[in-house]
Amino acid sequence: MTAWTRRHCVCTEVRNLDYEEAAAALKIKVDWLRDNIGKLPHIKFGQQPAVFCHCDLRLILAMHTAMPAQALEVLNAPAEEAAPTPAETSTVRSLATSRPAKGRARRAVAQT
Known about the structure:
Elements: H1 19-26, H2 30-35, H3 54-63, H4 69-76, H5 79-82, H6 86-89
C-alpha cells in the first residue's frame, strides 16, 4: 500500500471547512455533500466528520464542470489565433513613455 499525498493541495495555510461551510461555498445542499462524500476529495481525521480545504472545493468544482464542445475548441485553439497581440489592440501607453502631468498655472492673488 502506498501513502497517498494531497498533490492537488496548494494551500499555504489550510483552513478546514465543515460540511455546512463547504456547502455554502459551493452553493449546494449539505445533504448532497454527505451523500456523495465517498466520491469527493476530503480530509478525514479518525472518527471526526469529514472536512474540506479550498483545494478540495476547487477539485469538486472541476469534477462537476460541464464543458460544451465549442468551449473546448476555444480553449484548445492556438494562442496566436485565439487572441490578438497586445500591440494590435492596446491604446494604453506604456509606463516608460508616460510623463508627469503639468501642474496648473497659479493665479495671482489680488492683495487688498
